[in-house]
Write a structure and sequence with these properties.
Number of strands: 24
Largest sheet: 7 strands, mixed
Strand content: 15-25%
Radius of gyration: 21 Å
Helix content: 25-40%
Mean pLDDT: 96
Low-confidence stretches: none
Shape: globular
Strand order of the largest sheet: 18-19-17-16-22-23-24
Number of helices: 15
Distance between the termini: 58 Å
C-alpha cells in the first residue's frame, strides 16, 4: 500500500490525514488546535502541525505529502528566513482603507479585475502589505520575502532556510492580488504599488510540481488554498457548486474561464488542476450558528430543532449576519442586525430559524453572483461544519433553488491535499479517482419570500 499525507492548516486547527494513494482509504489521522485571533505567529501553526503529525503516527512511511491552508495570510520574512511579525490572517479587516486606496490608485475595480481577476478588499495579501508599509515602517524595512501560510509550512517541512526556495501553487497565489491566474505570472508592478518595493515571492508550481522533500525523501506537492483543496477533495464535477460553511462561508465552482468581475463580488481564483475557481466568500458562516446557540443557551442540535419548528421566513424575522464586518458585500465595519422583531417573533424558535436563513441567504447571494458571471450550476455540494446541522441541510434547497448533496462529514481540505499528494506519488497523467460514500440528497420547493425579506433588510444598510 502506497501511503500519502494531506495536511489542512486552517484558521482554527491543523488536520493531518494519511490515506491509501490508489483508493483514498483513510489509514490514520491527527489534529491540533490553532490559537484564536486574526493575527497569529506562524510558529503556532508549526507547533500544531508537529502535534497533528505525531497524533497521525508520523510521516516516515508516506510516499508524498501536500499542505493546504487558509488563504491570503501575510507571512513576512527577513533575509535570513525569520518571521518579521505575526501573520495577518484573511479575516483581519484593518487593511480595509488600504484596499480602497489601491482600487483608486490603479484606476478602479475594473482595472484590478482585468489585471489579476479580483478586486481589493481587506482579506487579500497585498492590502495587508500596504497596511504594514504604512503603519509599521520599521518592520516593513526588515521584510525580504512574502509568502502564504501553506507556502511557509511546506517550506518548513522541506527543511530549507533559504527564502529563494519557497514554492506555492496557482490556487493560493491567485488570492494575493499580485499574481494573475489568467497569465500565470506575477505582477511585480502591483506588488511594488502596494508595498513600495519588490520582494522575494514563491515560485508558482503546476498541479504536480515538487515543492521540496520530507526527511525520508518523499516529495512535497505544490499544496493549495483551502477552497481549491476542498473542491478537489469532494470530487465535485462540472456544474457542482460547492458551498462550504466553516469559519468563513464560500461558494465556488471549477470553470474554464476567469469571471473578471469588476464589482469584486466574484473573485477569479485558480483551482488545483490548471482551471479557474470563481468564488464568493463571506466572513460570517458557521459562527453565526455558534452565536445564535450561545445567545439562546442551546447546543447545535437543539438550535437545529428550534429552527425547524418555526415557519419558513420566520414570520418576517430577518437576521443580517454581519457579526464581524463582512467581505461580500464589502462592509468591513458592519455589524449584525435583526429586523421584523415583534411579539410573535420574540421566541427562541424564530431567532433560531432567522439565524439559519440569514447565514444561507448571504451564501445564496453568492450563488446568484456566480451564475451571473457565467458559472454552470446544476446542484449544490454542501460541506463544512455548518453542513452537519439538519436545519441547514433542509433549509438550503429552499433558498438555493437547486438539489443539495451533503457528503458524509469529512476533512475535505486535508483530503484534497492528500489526493494531490497521491497524484504526485503515483505520477499519473490525471489525478486518482477515489471511491466515496454516497451523499445525502435534499430537495425542497423554493421559497422566494425568505430571500425577498432578506434583501429588503440588507438594503437598509446601504
Amino acid at each position: 500500500m502506497t501511503l500519502v499525507a494531506g495536511i489542512d492548516s486552517s484558521t482554527q486547527s491543523c488536520k493531518v490525514v494519511i490515506r491509501d494513494a490508489e483508493t483514498g482509504k483513510l489509514v490514520r489521522q491527527g489534529r491540533a488546535a490553532h490559537p484564536d485571533g486574526t493575527e497569529v505567529h506562524p510558529d503556532a501553526w508549526w507547533a500544531a502541525l508537529q502535534q497533528a503529525i505525531e497524533e497521525a503516527g508520523g510521516l516516515d512511511d508516506v510516499a508524498a505529502a501536500s499542505v493546504a491552508g487558509q488563504q491570503h495570510g501575510m507571512v513576512v520574512l527577513d533575509e535570513n528566513g525569520e518571521v518579521v511579525r505575526p501573520a495577518l490572517l484573511w479575516n483581519d479587516t484593518r487593511s480595509a482603507g488600504a484596499a480602497a486606496d489601491l482600487i483608486q490608485e490603479l484606476g478602479g475595480g475594473d482595472k484590478w479585475a482585468d489585471a489579476v481577476g479580483i478586486v481589493p478588499v481587506a482579506s487579500f495579501t497585498l492590502t495587508k502589505l500596504r497596511w504594514l508599509a504604512r503603519n509599521e515602517p520599521s518592520n516593513a524595512a526588515k521584510v525580504a520575502a512574502v509568502c502564504l501560510p501553506h507556502d511557509w509550512l511546506t517550506w518548513k517541512l522541506s527543511g530549507s532556510t533559504d527564502i529563494s526556495t519557497i514554492k506555492t501553487d496557482r490556487s493560493d497565489a491567485s488570492g494575493t492580488l499580485y499574481w494573475s491566474a489568467k497569465t500565470n505570472q506575477y505582477r511585480p508592478d502591483l506588488l511594488e504599488l502596494g508595498f513600495g518595493r519588490l520582494l522575494q515571492t514563491p515560485e508558482v508550481l503546476g498541479p504536480t510540481g515538487i515543492a521540496g522533500h520530507l526527511p525520508n525523501g518523499a516529495p512535497l506537492g505544490p499544496g493549495a488554498g483551502d477552497n481549491a483543496a476542498a473542491l478537489f477533495g469532494t470530487g465535485a464535477g462540472p456544474g457542482d457548486v460547492v458551498v462550504s460553511i466553516g469559519t468563513s462561508g464560500t461558494v465556488f465552482v471549477s470553470a474554464e474561464v476567469s469571471p473578471d468581475d469588476p464589482s469584486g463580488t466574484v473573485a477569479g481564483f485558480a483551482d488545483v488542476t490548471g482551471r479557474f475557481l470563481p468564488i464568493v466568500v463571506t466572513l460570517n458562516a458557521a459562527r453565526v450558528l455558534d452565536a445564535a446557540g450561545k445567545l439562546l443557551g442551546v447546543d447545535h442540535e437543539q438550535l437545529s430543532r428550534l429552527a425547524l419548528s418555526a415557519p419558513a421566513g420566520a414570520d418576517g424575522l430577518v437576521l443580517i449576519p454581519y457579526l464581524e464586518g463582512e467581505r461580500t458585500p464589502n462592509l468591513p465595519d458592519a455589524t449584525g442586525s435583526l429586523h421584523g422583531l415583534t411579539l410573535k417573533t420574540s421566541d427562541p424558535a424564530h431567532l433560531a430559524r432567522a439565524s439559519v436563513e440569514g447565514m444561507l441567504c448571504a451564501l445564496a447571494d453568492g450563488l446568484d453572483a456566480l451564475i451571473e458571471r457565467g458559472a454552470e450550476a446544476n446542484r449544490i455540494v454542501l460541506v463544512g461544519g455548518g453542513a452537519r446541522s439538519e436545519a441547514v441541510r433542509r433549509v438550503a434547497p429552499e433558498l438555493f433553488g437547486l438539489p443539495v448533496l451533503v457528503p458524509p462529514p469529512g476533512e475535505y481540505v486535508a483530503d484534497g491535499a492528500a489526493r494531490q499528494a497521491a497524484w504526485v506519488a503515483l505520477g499519473t497523467a490525471e489525478p486518482p479517482v477515489w471511491s466515496a460514500e454516497p451523499p445525502e440528497s435534499y430537495e425542497a420547493v423554493s421559497v422566494p419570500l425568505i430571500r425577498e425579506q432578506y434583501k429588503k433588510a440588507a438594503n437598509l444598510l446601504g
